[in-house]
Write a structure and sequence with these properties.
single chain, mainly alpha, 3-stranded mixed β-sheet, 337 residues
Amino acid sequence: MRPDTPAENVDHTAEAARLERTAGLYPEDAETLLLRAAAHLELAGDRPAATTLYDRLLSSAAELADPALVRALKASNLWEYGHEAEARAIIEGIRATAPRDPAPWVIAAEALESHDELEAAAETFTEGTRLLIPGRTEAPLPATHPLLHGRHRVRRMLGLPHDDWDTLADTVHTGPVPLDELHDPKRVWSLGSDNPAELEAEISRLRAELGAYREALSRPFPVAVLHWPAPELEELLTAYPTLSTEYPSHTEHLATIESSLRELASSGTANLGIVTGTVPSYEAFAASEATSPTDPTLLPQYATTLAARGRAVAWPPGRGAGCWCGEERAYAECHGV
């Protein structure tokens, strides 16, 4: 969620200002852009300004896609500059509302963990895990893995025995160093050792943990394919009939999306996604590029721009999830057949 670039290499204040300006140009993406701006302000050390952005989002007339995430980020930020009571109150509110997105649970629990509230952090991780991963034997969605890993880490620090969810965390962990080693509280003791072998082993563990952390944070925007819902495609072709060569029919358009993504996946391309276009947004993008909307080469550029603005939905959908095409059927029963 947050930029993973040291402050000495990036002017985070300037980047936050740039993102705020971009949010003004693309109000439909203001939530994503302002959250990134707030993260840059936190990295720059200007936590009060970051709180101002969180408050701006929470008080906005526009409906937020994930208000619980914004509140969790605000709580974590407040605690870092002395507003502990308010942060605790926000975290309790998040736990009471029980959001269905794992990110607020993870951020709230990590805020407690970072301030040595290990029991409360373990309870928060467990509440989120129980809500979002009810089955302990089925493979959980990738978005819930940080819940399992965080819960495993805190319980290891508390010296609690493994349970089924800890075993599941071990199962979904893909790093070269097992979770029990990564989360072993005793490993820090080896940093004071004068034994070269122990120090080398600890350096390897730290490199593995740092690599996993950076991979989770970086999350470059997906390679995205452009999807037009039926009403939007009809409006697009009515306004720009020459684009009918790109989209002979809506049914064929949907089939092309699925086949293109499967072809990319089979070639080894990772991090695939789908972005949904609208005619007004496409026309605004064409105007910003000083290009006619009839130019078919503009379509993939438009898709890439939407993905970079955080508009992509990951493909393929998770197990049991609805199909990306918008039909009220599971993906496995629709385009996933």
